[in-house]
Design goal:
Elements: H1 9-35, H2 38-41, H3 51-69, H4 75-88, H5 90-99, H6 103-108, H7 114-134
Amino acid sequence: MTVASLMTPRRVRGRLLARWVLAFVYVTVGIFHIALPGPFLMIIPDWVPFPHQVILGTGVCEVAGAAGLLTKRFRWAAGVCLALYAVCVFPANIKHAIAGSPAGQLQLGCQVGWWYHGLRLAFQPVLVWWALFAGEAVTWPFGRSR
């Protein structure tokens, strides 16, 4: 029995929408990581080796994860890997919040404050769940076994 077979058609459509939106977000951010790595370099913690290559690698991972979400064969693995990815980039989000680096300003085109950083940090667990849900690794809280 598959995860999708436990869900109603409405919930299947909801997961499909979640998958496409998340794939769009990750492919967009991945392209920015590859094409414009400068703002992202500012938020890499100092202990991360080879920061430029890491930024390019994260962009490739985001684009690959987005593509994987849209294929049945790689969907589960892509969802799990994107969830792990969201956990791994959390230190950069923390540094961004604490250091108050202007990367958010460069990315958003306006001055950002704690409202932005607070929401971004609080949203990280949601992003982890979203990747797992879109990748059909979890059904919680929408699906229950029969």
